UniProtKB/TrEMBL annotation:
It comes from the Eukaryota. PANTHER family: HOMOGENTISATE SOLANESYLTRANSFERASE, CHLOROPLASTIC (PTHR43009:SF10). It comes from Glycine soja (Wild soybean). This is Homogentisate phytyltransferase 2, chloroplastic. It is a multi-pass membrane protein. It holds the Pfam family UbiA. The keyword Glycoprotein does not apply.
Length: 388
């Protein structure tokens, strides 16, 4: 996909009177909220940042779009350069946080904490406070890898995002393409350096493989996201296998232990790999309009929104049924009192949300809500994992 941007369908017609940008800037200044690491008081009850999931263009206040000169992406605050420096810096921080796609960072961070916690629970006698810095450096490396993958995708999807996700910072003109490239290069360099210097050649190889898969997913000429099967296999491999296996392996190595599979780790790796398949196919549900416009082939564009919603729900239900059966037939490996009721509740909640989606006739708002719920189930699985 080319990076050049054409004016969007929301471009302000030339017949509209000249806009008072000073007034717009003043309004924005009074409504912006300072963020600390992206965690604002606008978090909703499930802890999601208010920018993370706006999947409908009508959810974002419409503002005048800069004409095709936006392809130069002059950056944050270009239209309000007379505003105080502190406010422009806050806007830049907000744009960078949205660029990181916070919901994916939460999944990565929560998964890492859960797997490290599991390894420590299994070997409490080997816990050393001296390893704390190494653990946090590993988490930072994972966040950098996550930022690189979602960032490179946004750089090569600007035109599509103007239709599907106009709230993303590059598509909205809040972050320049040059700044985005600086960020993804920094993420890649920092992540590779940390992995290579702290976790040995094997983890470095796994980390490099993850970045490579994230690159070919988005970057021409391969751009594997054009092919539905290849796309969801890449997502499942990176978020399912590489993350779980890599973090658990690195934690045991830091404790001085050889790698060894345990029943809970086999369970979460398998479970999350299939869950990542569901995320891979349902993530395109809100994006059908833009994907069709730019001829991006996804399961949603090929099979239809309703069929994909049912397919994703079906795969998750099988996941939950197998989890309950594992607890019943392997009581020595799992805590029945937690695994069975938790997954029963998750399954019932999923059926209820699928019913709400059906009753809403698969509107874009309803689809976006359903996709948010899928991610909440993902977080919930990792939250209970250390204790199963």
């Amino acid at each position: 996909m080319e990076l050049s941007l054409s004016p969007t369908s929301h471009r302000v017609p030339s017949t509209i009177p000249t806009l008072n940008f000073a007034k717009l800037s003043s309004t924005k200044a009074t409504t912006s909220q300072p963020l600390f690491l992206g965690f604002s008081k606008h978090f909703n009850s499930i802890g999601l940042n208010h920018h993370s999931y706006r999947c409908c263009s009508n959810a974002v206040p419409k503002r005048p779009q800069r004409p095709s000169s936006i392809r130069a992406c002059t950056g944050v605050g270009a239209a309000g350069s007379d505003r105080p420096l502190a406010e422009r810096l806050l806007d830049l921080k907000d744009a960078c946080w949205r660029f990181l796609r916070p919901h994916t960072i939460r999944g990565t961070a929560l998964g890492s904490f859960a797997l490290v916690a599991r390894a420590l629970i299994e070997n409490t006698n080997l816990i050393k406070w001296s390893l704390l810095f190494k653990a946090f450096s590993g988490l930072f490396a994972l966040i950098c890898g996550n930022g690189y993958i979602v960032g490179i995708n946004q750089i090569y999807d600007i035109s599509i995002d103007k239709v599907n996700k106009p709230y993303l910072p590059i598509a909205a003109g809040d972050l320049s393409v040059q700044s985005a490239w600086f960020l993804v290069i920094f993420f890649a360099a920092a992540g590779l350096s940390i992995a290579g210097l702290n976790f040995g050649p094997f983890i470095f190889s796994l980390y490099t493989l993850g970045l490579f898969l994230g690159t070919i997913y988005s970057v021409p000429p391969l751009r594997m996201k054009r092919f539905p099967v290849a796309a969801f296999l890449i997502i499942a491999t990176v978020r399912g296998f590489l993350l779980n296996f890599g973090v658990y392996y690195a934690t045991r190595a830091s404790l001085g232990l050889a790698f060894e599979w345990s029943s809970p780790v086999v369970f979460i790796t398998t479970f999350v790999t299939f869950f990542a398949l569901v995320i891979a196919i349902t993530k395109d549900l809100p994006d059908v309009e833009g994907d069709r416009k730019y001829q991006i082939s996804t399961f949603a564009t090929k099979l239809g929104v309703r069929n994909i919603a049912f397919l994703g729900s079906g795969i998750l239900l099988v996941n939950y049924i197998v989890s309950v059966l594992a607890a019943i037939y392997m009581p020595q490996a799992f805590r029945r009192w937690l695994l069975i009721p938790a997954h029963t509740i998750f399954a019932i909640s999923l059926i209820y949300q699928a019913r709400i989606l059906e009753q809403a006739n698969y509107t874009k708002d309803a689809i976006s809500g359903f996709y948010r719920f899928i991610w909440n189930l993902f977080y919930a699985e990792y939250a209970i994992f250390p204790f199963i």
